[in-house]
Design brief:
Number of helices: 7
CATH topology: Alpha-Beta Plaits
Radius of gyration: 19 Å
Largest sheet: 6 strands, antiparallel
CATH class: Alpha Beta
Strand content: 25-35%
Order of helices and strands: EHHEEEEHEEEHEEEHHEEHE
Distance between the termini: 31 Å
Helix content: 25-40%
CATH architecture: 2-Layer Sandwich
Structural class: alpha+beta
Length: 302
């Protein structure tokens, strides 16, 4: 069952340096501060380069109104400051973790049970953080929290939807050979979500690679239109051993649509399921380091 957890944290020493707010520090916090304390072997397994990564992490720092992006019909959608180059930070930060394997949630639950007598302190790089609260459901008022079983995502996705408005809150890009392709092309987005779904759901849509390829080519590539887009490019800084490599990705809101007479009901249901799943899987590359944070904001008919 996919989960999206949000840790609401404050810097224990009053400030967090810009280096500690860069993407891979959230990944290190998750693996070293949370998973490794409960299961060192699992932490090593998740960290190994060639192994699946059934999770995402992101450091979320909302900006002011002037740094927001407006999507169609849904008011303002936040562009998160983790997409930018933050200076030292003194306010609340949110660390978002999504879990795509059932085996991960009990490990995280055990971590908090071990600190039931007081709020745990986590280290984000060199900066200690105090956790003020943990949110797991959207009813908590936190839009980035939630959970839904894979069967529930499939059953809850109607065949009647023809438009999907999606917000990309942190820089999003795709690997194209040795190059990056930071564009919200339907084929790239749906292929990213489908790859994750097939890997972690246990409920693959197709029985063969040929069927999967036909869906991506004949349905996604030929029938899904990019109708509306308000995106812009942002750098995304990482920090490795004193170096600051920079990725570029798009942030903002776009809308995908189909003509219902051109797409079979079963394929419409597959598309609607993948859009919903994007909230947990993220989009594109480096989702374990804070890139590609995704949220559907409008689902419906023409």
């Amino acid at each position: 069952m996919p989960y999206a957890l949000v840790l609401h944290c404050f810097p224990q020493n009053g400030t967090i340096t810009s280096q500690d707010l860069q993407g891979q520090k959230g990944l290190a916090l998750f693996l070293q501060e949370m998973i490794q304390q409960q299961d060192a072997a699992l932490s090593a397994q998740l960290h190994a380069p060639q192994n699946p990564k059934p999770f995402t992490t992101a450091i979320l720092l909302p900006t002011g109104e002037k740094n927001r992006s407006r999507g169609p019909g849904k008011g303002k959608q936040p562009i998160l400051r983790s997409a930018l180059s933050p200076n030292a930070y003194t306010e609340e930060i949110k660390i978002r973790i999504t879990l795509l394997w059932d085996m991960l949630y009990p490990v995280i639950a055990q971590f908090f049970l071990c600190h039931i007598d007081g709020p745990p302190v986590l280290r984000l790089g060199q900066s200690p953080l105090l956790i003020s609260r943990l949110t797991v459901t959207p009813e908590s008022g936190e839009i980035w929290s939630g959970y839904a079983g894979f069967p529930e995502l499939w059953k809850g996705a109607p065949e009647t939807e023809t438009t999907w408005t999606i917000h990309f809150a942190t820089p999003t890009t795709f690997k194209a050979g040795e190059a990056n392709l930071p564009l919200p092309l339907p084929r790239l987005c749906f292929q990213s979500w489908l790859q994750s779904w097939d890997t972690y759901s246990g409920l693959p849509f197709f029985s063969s690679k040929a069927e999967r390829q036909t869906f991506l080519t004949e349905v996604v590539e030929r029938q899904v239109s990019l109708e509306y887009t308000q995106i812009r490019m942002h750098p995304y800084l990482l920090y490795f051993e004193g170096r600051q490599p920079r990725e570029y990705g798009f942030v903002g809101t776009c809308r995908f649509s189909i003509r219902p007479t051109k797409v079979a009901p079963q394929d419409r249901k597959r598309l609607a399921t993948l859009v919903r799943y994007s909230f947990y899987s993220g989009t594109g590359k480096k989702t374990t380091m804070g890139m590609g944070v995704t949220r559907p904001v409008s689902l419906g008919k023409e």
